[in-house]
Amino acid sequence: MITLFASALSAAFLGLSTAAAPEVAISSATTGETNQETHRRTVVFEVQNMSCVTCPIAVKAAMNRVDGVEQVEIDYQTREASVTFDPRRTSSVAIAQASTSAGYPAALRQD
């Protein structure tokens, strides 16, 4: 599936037809919805105790160590972490716990 997605992405950048490539929808970062086709979920955490510009490195490393986490993006200015993961393999609770155990308490952002 990744190969097909990469082929479709390459074709799109080269201006080629993507008729044979499947469409892949990405879940919304703010709603925390799960995309059934890709089994990805993206959530945003508020992260405490980030007091210097190197703190996001520790938070990202802790969250990335959780099996099933696919991507972590940290915004130091807003003290937030956007995490994409496979909900069949982990949960937002496990990801928050990993950050908290590293000294950076994390909680799901309340919209």
Automatic annotation (TrEMBL):
Entry's Gene Ontology molecular function annotations: metal ion binding
Keyword hit for Ribonucleoprotein: no
N-terminal signal peptide: 1-21
InterPro entries: HMA_dom, HMA_dom_sf
Gene3D superfamilies: 3.30.70.100
Keywords associated with the record: Signal
Superkingdom of the organism of origin: Bacteria
Entry annotated with the keyword Signal: yes
Domain HMA: 41-107
Any Pfam family the entry gives: HMA
Membrane-traversing stretches: none
Name the UniProt record assigns to this protein: HMA domain-containing protein
Species whose genome carries this gene: Marinicauda pacifica
